[in-house]
Design brief:
single chain; alpha+beta; Bacterial polysaccharide co-polymerase-like; 3 domains; 5-stranded antiparallel sheet; 5 strands; 63% helix; elongated
Length: 346
């Protein structure tokens, strides 16, 4: 170590010792401010509103992944479009984005909790209605209607703002393990019912939308084939009745008059062709039913909240300690800064 570096180090140590001695000489004011900070922290713990957290863990996955190639190939032979099992628009982060979309969140907000919608509970709990009454534009905005489609333009604008606040301050959606199809939804607010029902309604509406979207093609194919099967069945029934009637009309007819039996023979051929077509459609119909079951995603709640929810409030002891430390650090910083400025002005 050079002589210059040694002198610099000695100066630093000397300055630190001077600062420590100076702070020790001001111990009383540091203790007073520290106690004041602790008191403020304790006051915060007493006055802070209780928060309620509702968490739901659920499985939502595409059950058709893997093993669908053979079924798709067989369906294509019958001319049925079952979609591609390699395309999954809703997976991973897409599910999280969907769940936090305005459509899903707003649908959950207009869900009922004891004869009132969640959005009205949110507005009342945040005392937004009192602020709105003071303005001509928003004085009639509260309460919101039961149906989101019945909102006025002003209410729709306010609902957008509420959606933004809920997503940023009250809602958390995550996928704890990226390799699994398990998702976690957590809602936190100062109203117990709001937290509880928002989590439940959001998961229910999102899963229903996801499942309906995933099986839409399979449902369309099933409905089309069912309609075709019913139509052919009715036509086949009429053909069989017609053949029977013509057969009865030519009963005990002289074998020499074959022309009169031609109508019955043509009807029989038509009934046979319709019977084969009906059997083919029934095969396709059963295949479509299997596909619908296969395409329906797996949806299962793992853990869900129960009322009453656990109350979350700041710990009085921790708030006291943190308040005291913050107060002590601030007064120490102020005293040191004051001492430095005093030296510079000399």
């Amino acid at each position: 170590m050079s002589e210059q570096e040694e002198v610099s180090l000695k100066d630093i140590i000397k300055r630190l010792q001077e600062i420590i001695q100076y702070l020790l000489s001001k111990w009383l004011i540091i203790v007073i401010i520290g106690c004041l900070g602790g008191s403020l922290g304790l006051l915060y713990a007493y006055t802070a509103k209780a928060k309620y957290d509702a968490s739901i863990n659920f499985v939502l996955s595409n059950s058709s992944s893997g093993g669908g190639g053979g079924l798709l190939g067989l369906a294509n032979q019958f001319g049925i479009d079952l979609g591609s099992d390699n395309i999954n628009a809703f997976s991973g982060d897409n599910i999280i984005t969907l769940m936090k979309s305005r459509r899903m969140v707003q649908k959950a907000l207009f869900g009922k909790a004891e004869n009132t919608s969640l959005i009205n509970i949110y507005v009342k709990d945040g005392k937004m209605d009192e602020a709105w009454k003071a303005l001509d534009r928003t004085k009639n905005a509260y309460p919101f209607p039961d149906n989101a489609l019945a909102m006025t333009m002003v209410q729709d604008s306010l609902a957008r703002s509420i959606y933004t606040n809920v997503v940023s301050g009250n809602l958390e959606v995550s996928q704890p393990d990226k390799t699994q199809s398990i998702y976690a939804v957590s809602t936190t607010s100062t109203d117990e019912k709001f937290s509880y029902y928002l989590a439940k309604y959001l998961v229910d509406s999102t899963s229903a939308f996801y499942i309906n979207t995933k099986v839409s093609t399979a449902k369309q194919n099933l409905n089309m084939l069912q309609h075709e099967a019913d139509s052919i069945k009715n036509i086949l029934g009429g053909a069989i009745t017609s053949v029977a009637a013509q057969t009865d009309a030519t009963f005990n007819l002289n074998p020499a008059y074959q022309v009169q039996r031609s109508g019955a023979m043509q009807g029989q051929a038509s009934a046979t062709a319709l019977g084969e077509a009906y059997g083919q459609v029934l095969q396709n119909l059963e295949l479509a039913k299997i596909t619908l079951q296969k395409e329906t995603p797996l949806y299962q709640i793992i853990d869900e909240p129960t009322l009453p929810l656990e109350v979350q409030k700041p710990s009085k002891l921790i708030s006291l300690i943190i308040g005291g430390l913050v107060g002590g650090i601030l007064i120490c910083g102020f005293l040191i800064l004051k001492q430095l400025l005093k030296r510079l002005n000399k």
